Amino acid sequence: MFEYFCPFMYTLKKSLGQHFLKDLSVCRRIVDEVAINKPRNLLEVGPGAGAITALFLEWENVTFRAVELDHEKVVFLEQNFPAIRGKLIEGNILDIDVPFDGAFTLVGNFPYNISSQILFRVLEWREQVETMVGMFQKEVAVRVASGPGNKDYGILSVLVQAFFRVEYLFDVSENSFDPPPKVQSGVIRLVNTGNPYQVKDFKKLLRLVKAAFGQRRKQLRNPLKPYFKPEILKEDIFTKRAEQLSVADFIDLMHKMS
Question: What is the pLDDT of residues 125-144, one digit of tens each?
Fold first, then answer.
């Protein structure tokens, strides 16, 4: 399989944040993690040189699709993996329409430069994304999985955990990639929990969480003053800092916003 990683067969594009996964043991581990939830529909984001794509194409009874922005990689994949023909979407995951009518699983080795945007895309598609297994820069992966009281807990933590259960699965060494990035990577799993907090206005929650963490070292009364009536701001919760609040706390505050 490693012949697909010959550097003369494709061009690495720094502008697209390309670091191709070459460690077969990591590839198989990611595929095994995806298999746990037995997806019927599967979307791979950024298949690149096909490191894990080749394994997914072996699956039966799964509708597989992949989205790839780089035209050169689309040509490469179709030449080297004939089974992928007709299953590739050439485009940007941030711009394409939702690729399935029903629920689907999403998997990818995500470019570090659009990690947050990828997660917001997952949130946008939250009614259909039942599971996501994704590799991110370790710093981002840890942030998404962190809970209240942790310095890594932040905007992404709250927003993602409002709709998904997050599991930090494993670290991935820099040496597992070609070329090696300057940072470690981490693989996480998101499992849809079906909107347990009954969030009806995502933009309102986003506005609240961004404001709270915009001045994360200050008591909430300062950054959230524009959003609440004076009598509400007297409540004890506003003497806390953003990182001290649980997802449920943020939801409760959202319902009290003016």
Answer: 999 999 999 999 999 999 99
